[in-house]
Amino acid sequence: MRYPLVTCALAALATAASADTLSIMADSSTSTEHTGSMFSGSLEYIFDAGNTGTLLVSLNNDTTVDIGGFLTGFVFNIDSQDANASASLTFGTNINFLDTGEESASPFGMFDAGAALGANWTGGGDPSFGMSIGSSDMFEFMVTASDASLLSASSFVGDGSDFAVRFRGLNDGGSDKILTPAPGTGALVFCGLAYAGRRRR
């Protein structure tokens, strides 16, 4: 089942201090195996109050059937001034995706948070429990940071090295790992607030 992406029109209705939305997609140039695996989706960040916010992640598995495979996990960094900023999974439409916490996502390095089969970027068991081709899922994270009010959707993409997606179980038995490009590269559409945080990695 596909869940519609939150549109720019909806983001424009958000108040200047509460929410914004960023459409994301695979940056094929960062693919580790160049299999042709693809994804798209959106990030919506909502400042709640104090030091907390909510991140909504919507992902679609756009890989073609001749390539096959399943989207089995994703991880992200929080570009915050708070070195202790964190995010925890509170809800997901795919119950097989579990909170990874801090996770090593080789070859891209360490990430602050994410969700994956078995809470494991590398493995996690049978990939068929992941997102099949043409499917979509939504995930909600509670973000905690001293500068939560200054974060935006782009705070979780950064310079293009901060949001990574994992594919496994391709038709040829292979797998792939892909990053999302930075906002402003022509590959992403950004609506709402400008990024007000600072990279900490």
Determine the fraction of residues in helical runs and give it as a percent range: under 10%
Counting DSSP E segments of at least 2 residues, the number of strands comes to: 13
What is the residue-averaged pLDDT? 87
Pattern of helices and strands = HEEEEEEEEEEEEE
Radius of gyration: 16 Å
If strands are numbered along the chain, what order do they take across the biggest sheet?
5-10-3-2-1-13
Give the termini distance in whole angstroms. 36 Å
Report the CATH C-level class. Answer: Mainly Beta
Question: How would you describe this protein?
Answer:
The chain is an all-beta fold and 201 residues long. It has one domain: Immunoglobulin-like, CATH 2.60.40. 3% of the residues lie in helices and 38% in strands. The protein has one helix at residues 8-13, and strands at 19-25, 39-49, 52-61, 70-76, 86-92, 97-99, 103-104, 110-111, 113-117, 136-144, 163-168, 176-179, 189-191. The strands form 3 sheets. Strands 5-10-3-2-1-13 form a 6-stranded antiparallel beta sheet. The chain has a 5-stranded antiparallel beta sheet with strand order 6-9-4-11-12, with no helix packed on it. Strands 7-8 form a two-stranded antiparallel sheet. The longest helix has 6 residues, at 8-13. Residues 1-17 and 189-201 have low confidence and may be disordered.
Briefly, what is this?
The model is unreliable at 1-17 and 189-201 (pLDDT under 50). The radius of gyration is 16 Å and the shape is globular.
